[in-house]
Amino acid sequence: MPERWRIVFVCTGNACRSQMAEGWARKLWPEKVDPRSAGVLPTRLDPRAVRVMAELGIDISSQRSKHIEELAGSDIDWVVTVCDNAKAMCPTLPDDIRRIHVGFDDPPSLSLKARSEEDALKHYRRVRDELREFVMGLPRLLGKSDPTDTREPGA
Fold first, then answer.
1. Of 10, 11, 76, 142, which is the active-site residue?
2. 16 in catalytic set
3. Which long-range contacts (CB under 8 A, 24 or more apart) does 87-93 make?
4. What is the DSSP letter of 67?
5. For position 143, what pLDDT does the model report?
6. Helices and strands per DSSP (H, E), number in the chain
7. Residues 76, 97: contact at Cβ < 8 Å?
């Protein structure tokens, strides 16, 4: 089996979006991706993120929030920032780590104005599903069929 892409999904708190992206990558690409997640200001795993992922059979409950600096020294091929704040605050990375930015809405912020728990969960479900579509397209986006191929995407 070829080596897998080592991808770190980063959002501000490593509580929701990056955690869901990590869960999707584990589920959708177990043979192609070694996913991790981190934050620039980590907090705690969001229970609503855990809940909406579990609705689709993906258990992220054992994941934990961690600072991107915890992954220093790890072999990382790609850093994928999933929120604008994380992109702006992400520390300088070695030149050999490639970066992608795709901003997704922040379900916890959107749910502050929700009138009910169900209304709050609608935001989480929408972003969960958007993240799924993004993660589904990762091999195409990265422009490779073989994670050991070191050419730039599209080359």
1. 11
2. no
3. 89/12, 89/40, 89/41, 90/10, 90/40, 91/40
4. B
5. 64
6. 6, 4
7. yes
Distance of CA 81 to the CA centre of its chain: 7
Question: Can you tell me the mean pLDDT for 33-49?
Answer: 95
Bridge partners, 35 (sequence order): 7
Listed in sequence order, the residues at least 6 apart from 61 whose beta carbon sits closer than 8 Å to its beta carbon are 45, 50, 54
Which of 10, 25, 38, 83 is catalytic? The answer is 83
Check: CB of residue 74 under 8 Å from CB of residue 44: no
Q: Which of 90, 121, 135, 138 is catalytic?
A: 90
| Residue range 87-122, pLDDT digits in tens | 887 766 666 788 899 999 999 999 999 999 999 999
Q: Which of 155, 148, 123 is nearest to 3 (CA)?
A: 148
Q: What pTM was computed for the model?
A: 0.87
